[in-house]
Amino acid sequence: MDPEVLKRTIERERKRREEAERLLEEKSRELYLSYRQLEEAHAELKANKDRLVQSEKMASLGVMAAGVAHEINNPLGFVSSNLSTLDEYLAVFRRLIPLVKRQLATPSEETLAAIQALYENEDFDFLLEDTADLVRESGQGLERVQAIVAGLKRLSFSGTGKLGPIDLIACLDETVLMVRGQLTRDCTIETRYVELPPILGNSGQLGQVFMNLLVNAAHAVREVNDPRVVIEVQPVDEGVEVTVADNGCGISPEHQTKLFQPFFTTKAVGEGTGLGLSISHGIMQEHGGEIRCESAEGAGSRFTVRLRLALAASDPE
Q1: Model pTM?
Q2: How far apart are the first and last CA of the chain?
Q3: What are phi and psi of 303, to 5 degrees?
């Protein structure tokens, strides 16, 4: 081949290679920028979702505020009453102790007679026994208030979203305590629990799921005679199912297909955001579980949540 032709051919190939490298670098840069934009969009989407979940959680807690206040006022009421009674009992001992001190320092028939009269007029055996009961009951009442406040704190805290071994029954009991004020006074909450090993979950997120289901049940049974909500826990395969069933108004077939869609609600304006079940569905997906509904108009509803056991989830595949 002519050297000049060969030289031109090599130069032409060099330019083609340089152009190809330039185009590759340009496309790689565009791809990198697109990837970064996708990452940023994904991060923004996750942040918006977290804010939405937290917003719905706080809305639910706001709805429950009056009921929770009632739950707190009950134990505080009898603690206050017990303290008033204890103050009356202390007044008796305030009269007795100076007489005893005087008798020990300077014994006299007069002081002894005063002690005897006071002892006969007041039932000290009853006072001592009832004082112990009042202190015990007051302690239990304050523990109840503490549990309610701790439950509110855990439910309102957004947390890290990490899953770990948790006590499912404790999570359910805590949520029932929060929601009890939402139910009518004559509504019966029946629990059917069995002993379980720890499950894999996030107590704050699962508490929100159970809270949404129980609040919905509370709305469903408002107008029925003998309102009833049943919470049942059953082991299944390598997991566990929690069912929340009510004997309320039920859900029509056309509405059941939309239950887990964002912003869908059958509640009156101002009573629901339409996000509770949608968020619950998302939480269950993150837990590797599921949530489903069975319902018929006028025959109540039954929501089932399926979760994994912590041991089963950690087994090697």
Answers
A1: 0.57
A2: 65
A3: -100, 135
On whether the CB atoms of residues 275 and 259 are closer than 8 A, the answer is no
Residue 151 and residue 177 in contact, taking contact as beta carbons nearer than 8 Å: yes
> What pLDDT is stored for residue 158 in this prediction?
47
pLDDT grade for 153, boundaries at 50, 70 and 90: low
Q: Which long-range contacts (CB under 8 A, 24 or more apart) does 11-18 make?
A: none
Backbone phi and psi for residue 275, each to the nearest 5 degrees, phi listed first = -110, -15
Angstrom distance (rounded) from CA 299 to CA 248:
7
- The tokens for 276 are 């509770």
Spatial separation of the C-alpha atoms in residues 296 and 256, rounded to whole Å: 9
- What is the DSSP secondary-structure string of 57-76? HHHHHHHHHHHHHHHHHHHH
Inter-CA distances, 160 with 50, 74, 122, 203, 228, Å: 10, 34, 59, 11, 35
In the predicted model, what is the mean pLDDT of residues 237-246? 90
Least Cα distance to 188 among 234, 250, 246 occurs for 246
CA angle, 136 as apex, 134 and 139 as ends, to 5°? Answer: 105
What SS3 string covers 253-298?
A: HHHHCCCCCCCCCCCCCCCCCCCHHHHHHHHHHHCCCEEEEEECCC
Report the run of H or E that residue 243 belongs to, with start and end.
strand 239-246
Q: Retrieve residue 163's tokens.
A: 């899953």
- For residue 246, the 8-state DSSP code is E
Q: What is the mean pLDDT of residues 64-93?
A: 81
Q: What token pair was written down for 285?
A: 């997906």
Q: Are 64 and 207 in contact (CB under 8 A)?
A: no
Residue 161 burial (CB count, 10 A): 13
pLDDT at 304: 93
